[in-house]
């Protein structure tokens, strides 16, 4: 690779889908007959609301729409543990609300163990699950001299549980929880799994006793934290049963939770009701992550269950929930007008853009987000750069203006590149008025960066983005409903490029700040003086120099730079040859005494402190830089400071006044010498 430049020497020189309003869920979807469970009295589309957090659990889907309509906590199998939690906190302690849930526990004469309905600060699981724990309580057997707090430490933290226990434990038998109750085979209980006074440890076998309050006057010594109501008939009777939750807030930060269990049976229904009052301090005590942490005002809703050598299925359907905003979003990766998909081949420097679309339907009661603050987190592929307005890669901490469009109106948001450099947090998102439906759109430009991959590589990027508002986070999907972006990266061959070469105008330093043209006599005597044969910083002012910053009219710039994007990085070699300095009308070669081969001038390239190379004006190629294998890019100078170059003239018998020029030819080869 060659480049030429001219040198003058003068004697004058840059949303999973959330629930649609479900005040009465029902007709839009069908119950999957292949589930093996009868259809509940009422159910609805809860797609995107809940997510299994244990392997034994799954969502039951409507075969027509593919949307979730039921929650299978446990299959009808032995020794299983299951859990399904809401994806976002949904039980709002600052609003009156009502929830209707139906549950099914099979039809067996010998059932067990049971399931829990849980409100918690965040989805979690006990550190250890006993078959009798129902997925919420602490461990059963502990070593002698253990304390109730040690049981609580192994339970579901920061939570309130409502349980239906279908297997009789206790009566001093090892292998299960002792229940301080009236010892019926099944009951509806409530309690706080993470609180020490929910448990007692007692003989025999150092067993854990669930410590329920008892209202029976003859049993007043039982003053544990939980409550328990016996059920008349087992819920494992082949029928669906109902749990109704009603929350009434007070004006002091607390409220009253009424939980009514309705067991369907052949005669009249069996009811069990608990009324639980929480003060603001109770909410702090039971649900805060730590004693000094703020109490959460929205709780996650979860369902847990366990089986043992006796077992039953645990299935839940949602009958009714408070009205909620509908939020869903998509992201598409585009190359121009082409949608990038799993068959698209991308090359280094391909220009792309992410197109984001968020659909919001605010409730009739409040705008979305009600807090006024919505944020988006939008990761990019690790092989891409986000681009600033000037087309340069965005770096961590950079803030990018983002034009957000809603209908025919534009809004100004901003994105900040996060410390990992791979994602942008988008803030200042517009608020959607209550009752309104809106589609929010914006784009972010990106570019395939140098990646060094030597083979064709299929890529799947995940996650692809979220939007958060009012404490709830919704996952973005692709327009095809996938949670990842797929494409193919072609191997990078890279290239070795001599990006820039400098041009120079040489003059003599004159005093502290000035520059002047050398005289004919100075040229005849030689510059620098004959006694100075090598350049160094100490004698720099005796040489002709380009440090005044001037450039010739046909300048190629001030920088010398080599760019090596080859993944193999086998090294490179750069040379320069300089033609003889000649008057611009070609009438005279410097130092011509019958010899036009030049050789009277010597150009020295430096990094301001040390000599890089010295090149005579005799057309001989001279090494400038030898980059060993494994090396990378290299440059000298900047556009404001240029390459520091110096020119020496040997004594010559003659010199003619005028402007001299020479041509520099640069040769870059793809391996070191």
UniProtKB/TrEMBL annotation:
Gene3D superfamilies: 2.60.120.200
InterPro entries listed in its UniProt record: ConA-like_dom_sf, Lectin_L-type_dom, WxL_dom
Pfam families linked: WxL
Ranges where the WxL domain occurs: 529-672
Keywords: Signal
Signal peptide bounds: 1-27
Name listed for the protein in its UniProt record: WxL domain-containing protein
Species of origin: Lacticaseibacillus paracasei
């Amino acid at each position: 690779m060659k480049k030429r430049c001219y040198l003058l020497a003068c004697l004058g020189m840059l949303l999973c889908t959330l629930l649609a309003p479900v005040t009465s869920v029902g007709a839009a979807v069908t119950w999957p007959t292949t589930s093996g469970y009868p259809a509940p009295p009422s159910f609805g589309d809860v797609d995107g609301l809940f997510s299994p957090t244990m392997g034994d659990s799954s969502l039951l889907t409507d075969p027509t729409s593919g949307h979730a309509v039921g929650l299978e906590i446990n299959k009808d199998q032995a020794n299983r543990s299951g859990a399904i939690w809401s994806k976002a906190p949904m039980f709002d302690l600052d609003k009156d609300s009502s929830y209707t849930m139906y549950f099914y526990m099979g039809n067996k004469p010998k059932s067990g163990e049971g399931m829990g309905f849980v409100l918690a600060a965040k989805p979690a699981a006990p550190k250890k699950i006993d078959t009798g724990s129902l997925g919420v309580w602490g461990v059963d057997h502990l070593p002698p001299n253990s304390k109730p707090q040690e049981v609580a430490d192994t339970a579901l933290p920061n939570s309130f549980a409502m349980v239906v226990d279908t297997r009789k434990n206790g009566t001093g038998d090892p292998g299960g929880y002792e229940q301080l109750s009236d010892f019926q085979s099944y009951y509806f209980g409530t309690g706080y799994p993470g609180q020490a006074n929910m448990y007692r440890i007692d003989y025999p076998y150092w067993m854990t006793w669930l410590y329920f309050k008892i209202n029976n006057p003859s049993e007043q010594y039982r003053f544990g934290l939980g409550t328990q109501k016996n059920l008349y008939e087992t819920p494992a009777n082949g029928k669906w049963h109902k749990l109704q939750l009603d929350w009434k807030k007070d004006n002091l930060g607390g409220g009253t939770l009424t939980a009514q269990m309705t067991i369907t049976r052949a005669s009249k229904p069996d009811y069990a009701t608990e009324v639980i009052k929480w003060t603001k301090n109770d909410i702090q005590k039971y649900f805060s992550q730590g004693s000094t942490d703020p109490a959460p005002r929205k709780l996650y809703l979860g369902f847990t269950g366990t089986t043992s050598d006796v077992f039953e299925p645990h299935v839940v359907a949602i009958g009714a929930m408070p009205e909620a905003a509908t939020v869903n979003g998509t992201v598409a990766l585009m190359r121009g007008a082409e949608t990038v998909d799993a068959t698209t081949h991308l090359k280094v420097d391909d220009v792309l853009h992410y197109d984001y679309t968020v659909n919001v339907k605010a409730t009739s009661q409040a705008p979305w987000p009600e807090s006024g603050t919505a944020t988006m987190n939008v990761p990019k592929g690790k092989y891409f750069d986000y681009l600033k307005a000037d087309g340069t890669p965005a770096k961590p901490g950079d803030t990018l203006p983002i034009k957000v469009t809603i209908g025919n109106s534009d809004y100004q948001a901003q994105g900040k590149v996060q410390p990992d450099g791979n994602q942008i947090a988008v803030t200042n998102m517009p608020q959607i008025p209550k009752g309104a439906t809106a589609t929010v759109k914006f784009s972010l430009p990106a570019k395939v960066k140098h990646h060094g991959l030597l083979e064709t590589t299929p890529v799947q990027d995940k996650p692809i983005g979220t939007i958060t508002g009012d404490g709830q986070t919704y996952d973005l999907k692709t327009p095809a409903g996938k949670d990842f972006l797929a494409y193919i990266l072609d191997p990078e061959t890279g290239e070795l490029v001599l990006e820039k070469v400098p041009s120079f105008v040489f003059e003599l330093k004159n005093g502290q700040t000035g520059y002047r043209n050398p005289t004919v006599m100075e040229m005849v005597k030689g510059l620098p003086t004959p006694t100075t044969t090598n350049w160094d910083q100490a004698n720099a002012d005796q040489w002709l120099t380009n440090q005044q910053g001037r450039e010739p009219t046909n300048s190629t710039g001030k920088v010398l730079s080599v760019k090596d994007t080859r993944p193999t990085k086998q090294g490179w070699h750069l040379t320069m040859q300089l033609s003889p300095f000649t008057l611009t009308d070609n009438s005279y070669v410097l130092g011509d005494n019958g010899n036009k081969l030049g050789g009277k001038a010597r150009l020295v390239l430096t990094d301001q402190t040390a000599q890089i190379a010295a090149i005579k004006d005799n057309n001989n190629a001279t090494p400038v830089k030898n980059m060993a294998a494994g090396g990378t890019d290299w440059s000298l100078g900047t556009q404001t400071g240029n390459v520091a170059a110096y020119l020496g003239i040997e004594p010559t018998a003659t010199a003619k006044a005028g402007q001299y020029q020479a041509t520099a030819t640069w040769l870059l080869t793809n391996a070191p010498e």
